[in-house]
């Protein structure tokens, strides 16, 4: 997908699609901007940054210590090109959240971030055809490792409910806040198109298992 978007950017200047729409970006950025738990100097990493829409909006709002990682080389190339176009100083690196170690990806090498942002990456990992439960465990361990003490994970999901996410992240994280999202009614039931939660890293030893 990003190969096509990169080609379109070079040909027409099209910056590509934004997962869940720009309103989902604004929802998270507005929370970060207003929350007493974040500052303009907070170290923030976007896990699965794609075309860097989230990071570029954060940069426009004054945040400066920003890092974006993505599994896809073309996504990183696209993100770098868009950041350069906006004169935004953001670090980007191709990384595999499920396998990288300190020796292969400096952005995931040690506990260095106040906040991790995820908009759809955990969803994508959850849909992996081979042992998705194990991959989710690897993801959660990586996030726990790279966060500073009391660091935060701000996660946006359209696949999992609040209850499911709290259950899955109970090994190493505690729910801090739920960011409101628009509701809809269907069949007499009220629901949300997406769930946005803020988890706080707990000082515990991560285990190898994870709840379903």
TrEMBL record:
GO terms for biological process: methylation. Its EC number is 2.1.1.-. InterPro entries: Efm4/METTL10 (IPR026635), Methyltranfer_dom (IPR025714), SAM-dependent_MTases_sf (IPR029063). Residues 44-177 form the Methyltransferase domain. One of its GO terms (molecular function) is protein-lysine N-methyltransferase activity. It is found in: Cytoplasm. SUPFAM superfamilies: S-adenosyl-L-methionine-dependent methyltransferases. PANTHER family: EEF1A LYSINE METHYLTRANSFERASE 2 (PTHR12843:SF5), PROTEIN-LYSINE N-METHYLTRANSFERASE METTL10 (PTHR12843). S-adenosyl-L-methionine-dependent protein-lysine N-methyltransferase that methylates elongation factor 1-alpha. Belongs to the class I-like SAM-binding methyltransferase superfamily. EFM4 family. This is Protein-lysine N-methyltransferase NP493_1247g00034. It comes from Ridgeia piscesae.
């Amino acid at each position: 997908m990003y190969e096509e978007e990169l080609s379109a950017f070079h040909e027409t200047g099209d910056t590509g699609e934004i997962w869940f729409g720009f309103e989902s970006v604004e929802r998270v950025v507005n929370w970060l901007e207003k929350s007493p738990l974040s500052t303009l100097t907070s170290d923030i990493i976007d896990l699965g940054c794609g075309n860097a829409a989230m990071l570029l909006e954060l940069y426009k709002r004054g945040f400066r210590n920003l890092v974006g990682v993505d599994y896809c080389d073309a996504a990183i190339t696209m993100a770098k090109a868009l950041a350069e176009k906006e004169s935004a100083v953001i670090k980007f690196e191709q990384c595999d959240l499920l396998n990288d170690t300190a020796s292969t990806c400096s952005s995931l090498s040690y506990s260095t971030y106040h906040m991790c942002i995820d908009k759809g990456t955990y969803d994508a990992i959850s849909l992996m055809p081979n042992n998705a439960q194990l991959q989710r465990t690897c993801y959660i361990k990586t996030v726990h490792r790279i966060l500073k003490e009391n660091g935060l994970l701000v996660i946006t999901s359209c696949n999992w409910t609040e209850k499911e996410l709290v259950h899955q992240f109970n090994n190493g994280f505690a729910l801090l806040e739920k960011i409101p999202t628009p509701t809809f009614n269907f069949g007499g039931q009220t629901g949300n198109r997406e769930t946005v939660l803020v988890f706080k890293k707990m000082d515990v030893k991560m285990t190898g298992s994870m709840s379903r």
